[in-house]
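thought: fold this chain, then report.
action: predict
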Amino acid sequence: MLRINASKLAATTAVGAMLMALAACGGGGSTGQDAASPEASAASSAPAGPKVGLAYDIGGRGDQSFNDAAAAGLDKANTELKLGEIKELEAGAGETGAQKEQRLRLLAQSGFNPVIAVGFAYSEAIKKVATEFPDTKFAIIDDAAEGPNISNLLFAENEGSFLVGAAAALKSKKDHIGFVGGVQVPLIKKFEVGYTKGAQAVKPDIKIDVKYLTQPPDFGGFNDPAKGKTAAEGMFDSGADVVYQAAGGSGGGVFEAAKAAGAMAIGVDSDQALTADEAVRGVIMTSMLKKVDVAVFDFLKSYTDNTVKAGQTIYDLKAGGVDFSTTGGQVDDIKNKLDEYKQDIVSGKITVPAE
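observation:
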């Protein structure tokens, strides 16, 4: 398998240079064998799997959160479905919509099919590029952009956040908790609303501090650990003892602040007690699991099965698309209560608002 990670490419990289990079790394996966050997000849005659293009949001593979969850689904698909060539490209901080279009267009022009866009920031770009390449199958995570060749992979983040909100309230000794959002957009508001409703279900009068790191069109709040740390420090200083972050790469700063304050934090998207820096994993009492990896794998499997469908697939609590983690055992004593809330949501006894 060949892989490009363009996390170091500047957002202003010229179209020609990116095309040259794609061309230079083109072709099927390399085995390291001599091209003239019988083994290489046999491999070259074997049917190749689909060429998959994946465009990350800011932070890319290695963000220990949302993008890494997508990468995990891609890696699983490559192992189990025998994909062909893979290209991974990454958004740069402060880039324009035209640059996002360019990234998706480069993948499609280079023959990658399907193409997956990770994050709602690709909404306008994917709508435009998908019309230019009607024979290419596109998927976008966290956005409902419509098109006959666009699949929407959506999640009930509010339901998963309800569960970790309940956990925060059950664990808080000060009846004071916090929420740090990366960027104040409707998607992240779903996390905040679910978290608030879950905490209030346990303690109606609990105090909840809320802070967003940036406002659109500045999406740097998803990759600024220093801002995340400062926001969380303010909450801990004011008396909060649990803070939930839905802030992508900025979440590492929240964990650092929790460790320094002797407090607790809640991770997001991935089980961050497994993925965060080892120095801070101990403060992560639970994480809201958003199974982006499952959605990416499902989409790629549907492509290889020739069963791709355009439109929305919603991964909610009932479908197992969201949940809470138990790594480290810090919520073992309240797990039964959280499971009760989970069942009440699945059965419809509790309806968690999204806004």
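thought: worth noting. The chain has twelve helices and twelve strands.
final: tokens above.
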